[in-house]
């Protein structure tokens, strides 16, 4: 399964993008353990793109038998950096979550209107080691 959607470059677009991803992943047959973790990581990528980048922002989801790949493209060439903020910091943990919870992640240069893609992959067999995550509120 492959799907993509444009994301409005505003913080108010994060929840709709998260719900869109949840719906597409559910339609692709992703089970609850993987689904919650994937939606959490989608939320982190989209948040970074709308908070720190320029349009156009596009969310892509690709599910095959071995893994799920998610990427978010945006209009800025600056790549995200893994930070380890102190417990009192209000933010700065998104890329750290992706780094620690995804099977792999990275960035790639894009052609056209988008400058870069930030992506992660979650191998379906990796989830059993990570436990259960919930992103619903």
Automatic annotation (TrEMBL):
It comes from the Bacteria. Keywords: ATP-binding, Kinase, Nucleotide-binding, Serine/threonine-protein kinase, Transferase. Residues 10-107 form the Histidine kinase/HSP90-like ATPase domain. InterPro entries: Anti-sigma-factor_SerPK, HATPase_C_sf, HATPase_dom. GO terms for molecular function: ATP binding; protein serine/threonine kinase activity. PANTHER family: ANTI-SIGMA-F FACTOR RSBW, ANTI-SIGMA-F FACTOR RSBW-RELATED. This is ATP-binding protein. It comes from Cellulomonas terrae.
